[in-house]
Amino acid sequence: MKTITILSGKGGVGKSSISASLAIAISRQKKIIVADCDVDASNLALVFGIKENDYKEWEEITTNQRPVFDLSKCDSCRKCFENCYFESIKWQDEKPELLEYSCEGCGMCELICLQKAIKLRDVMNARIGYAETKYGFKIALAQLEVGKSGSGKVVTEVKQKATQLADNSDIMLIDSAAGISCPVIASVTGSDYCLLITEPTPSSLSDMKKALELVKHFNVPHGIVINKYDINKERSGEIESFAKKNNIKLVGKLPYDKVFTEALVSMVPVIEKSGKLDVLFSRIAEQLLK
Fold this sequence. Notes:
Elements: E1 2-7, H1 15-27, E2 32-36, H2 44-47, E3 56-61, E4 64-69, H3 79-83, E5 89-92, E6 95-98, H4 108-112, E7 118-123, E8 126-132, E9 138-144, H5 151-165, E10 171-175, H6 182-188, E11 193-198, H7 202-217, E12 222-227, H8 233-245, E13 249-254, H9 259-266, H10 275-289
Parallel strand pairs: 1-10, 1-11, 2-9, 2-10, 11-12, 12-13
Antiparallel strand pairs: 3-8, 4-7, 5-6, 8-9
Helix pairs in contact: 1-10, 5-6
Organism: Candidatus Falkowbacteria bacterium RIFOXYD2_FULL_34_120
Protein name: 4Fe-4S ferredoxin-type domain-containing protein
Domain 4Fe-4S ferredoxin-type: 65-94, 95-123
């Protein structure tokens, strides 16, 4: 099974909209499984028109820990309070109290407590499940709990879930989170190809270059799609020149079209709303399948 990961660096460039339409275009030629690996704010399923009651087999998962205080053993030495790097412990009535939303579960407090009054315990930090799309393929996804960390590990769980659901699929298409942090690293790891989405703005090009460094670090073959290329053709030309200079394949260009917004509002992939865009997405899909 070939794994294709779609990432962007900058958020808001149309990555998830493009991922949804490419999934449909690819599914016309190959059997596909989709993984939404933006676990902090997963919304790819919404683009496919999937609603809350359409999800199946929600499973609580644990990829993180939090400290638990045994106050009967605490001698009020304040070491945990004074040495917490994230300032996640407040001192209340001469005893420690955890500020859960700022705690990263690093374990310093457990390590430094001579009274053994602090123990790290596993906590549920996400739930993982899947849904059937009306296009004949499944989408695996997870939802990180508010204030919980460990999103990189949760992404790995989503990829494993997608593999379980693959049922001899030819392609796994991953919609990564924006940025270059742990969730994106976990998405890119093990990929056979990465498609970077950018747009002709200074910030998008700058962030794409950062994402490109990550992809190159893992030696993953890659290409670029310029979305909304016609809003600034001069800047698009700069992106094309950058790609040519660095031997990066320009897989495709998509025009600005308000039908993208109309499709999102209707919870329908844009490929279904525009014949012109259908042709362009099909061409990009053909490039990815070569």
